[in-house]
Model the fold of this input.
Amino acid sequence: MKKIAVILSGCGVYDGAEINESVLTLLHIAKHGASYQCFAPDIEQMHVINHLSGEEMQPNRNVLVEAARIARGEIKPTTALNVDDFDALILPGGFGAAKNLSNFATDGANAQMNDEVLSACKAFANANKPVGYICIAPAMIPLVYGKDAIATIGNDADTAAAIERMGGQHVNCPVEAFVVDEKNKVVSTPAYMLAQSILEADAGISKLVAKVIELSH
Done:
């Protein structure tokens, strides 16, 4: 049985992991007969958003504690993620990927990743194991794989331009499709960067999970 690590960035589209993307990822991993283990950094969120009003709220929350909501409590800190235990890695989107796993939301092309998350992602890159990045998470691909790494976030011109300035190679992609960097074994799909419904998000995510698992053979 293939074992897939999943790194979450909190809980909720505006300040953490996108819940639909995360659940669909876990569902399709299971449907492919693979197992998963969720991880998240044990850090404070950048901020907390009231998902009803869109306003910031207090107090702040912990990324690992919030992500545990999605994982039904079955989650570990990213420091416990050992690449040798897994065949592949997937990072769902949500603004948490750009606020908590990295600071892409505030720093754009000058973004840096959380050290723990970068270390985990680089471990999979160095082991030549496949990784899937969903939604806004592909903005981190150039930080992990360096110059000319191929990524998609869909077709948002400003985000694509930032990825190019970071040294990545952005490829426009429709919601139901995905892009593969064959050299680096990296798969990306736009999901809710483009999706107008859960069905549209599912179309690309299901294919990304299938491709990541295929590349792990």
